[in-house]
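User: I'm putting together notes for a lab meeting next week and I want to include a structural view of one of the chains we've been expressing. I don't have a solved structure, so I'd like a prediction I can at least talk through. The sequence is below, exactly as it appears in our construct file.
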Amino acid sequence: MKKENSLKRVQSSELGENEGKSVELHGWVHDVRLLGKITFLIVGDPFGYYQAVLKGDLAEKASNIPRQSYVVLRGKIVKSKSKINPFEVQVESLDIVNEADKVLPLDPASKVKSELMTKVNNRPLDLRDEEERKIFLMRADVLNVIREFLIHKGFIEVDTPKIIATASEGGAELFKVDYFGKPAYLAQSPQLYKEELVLALGRVFEIAHYFRAEKSNTVKHLNEFMSVDIESAMMLKQDVMKILEELIKYIYSSLKSKGYSLEEPNYTFPIYTYEEVCKSVGVEFGNDLTTDALNQFGKDKGFYFIVEWPLSLKPFYTMPKGEKLSESFDLMYKGLELASGGQRIHKYDLLVERLKANNLDPESFKEHLKVYKWGMPIHSGWGLGFDRLMMVLTGRNNIREVVLYPRDSRHLAP
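Assistant: Thanks for the context. Below is the predicted structure for the 414-residue chain, given as structure tokens.
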């Protein structure tokens, strides 16, 4: 009867605590280096890299292993002079479990970076590049931090439908689907549901994917995107602005405590009115602020708010401020819009009036409108573009770099 291997299986991050022991390690061959009769393998796993030293017959066996092949090593852990890891493995046995193709679509070990879409189309292999993997490890950390912060603030996580019967914000930028013979749409936001839920739950948040049928192909737009949304009863615009600013600062401080290299925004986020921005960049009041205008205004700024947008530029559920303005805000980073929010309408008659003003049929929203006859409280909220936030945190310039499998009008695969 075959005796089972009794060696302890360890990861790259556990080498130091097992110094002097014989262990088993699994991983992929990141690089192969030959020095005389010795072969050095640089082996990677999801937690890092280390050097493996092979001599004699093992050195010859290892010398021709294609990079990215999956191997199992057994050997003794000793201190190393390598800059890769302060500990290395003196290999006593080597199993080539799964040999990779000799020609790969990209080389994670190369200092020459592949084209973006080559990386996207081969994402699992791309993630064997430590720098690329760090983006998505950070992404997971940020999601955990956001949940931690909002739960601490008394928000309840909810999950709302992504197949809906009515456009949540109006407009034509919706993916239409056949729902058992009836027209339905992919949700572009959780807006109507989260407003309804504050009726009894008070404070809610959702982190989920949403869809917009825009044909724009820019570095900051996708057709499937992740959004962080909150809604709170008994809060005004300035209250949820404060929560958003606190959240951004908490994300930075939390990531820094985890070892990420970031410059924290240790300042109060400035607040500018829409009118001030228009005057600064020469845009006529009432017109939307173009990408060029926002880039011009924000080029020397970090995080800041733009408030009091014209009511005509905001969705129907936005609370008016006088006749022309709205109780709204956008959070910006330089010229990039990260979040949009404000106080919402809580009165039935006013909401019907604003639907009609936006050429929307109140009858199509009757299931939503009925909630406003049940004592809807004053409420406010925002939606934060999570993928865009990741662009800011990582310093990447294209949203496709921070999304595992980006979806835009040109790319559906992989």
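A couple of points you could mention at the meeting. The radius of gyration is 27 Å. The domain at 124-402 is CATH 3.30.930.10 (BirA Bifunctional Protein; domain 2).

User: Perfect, that's what I needed.
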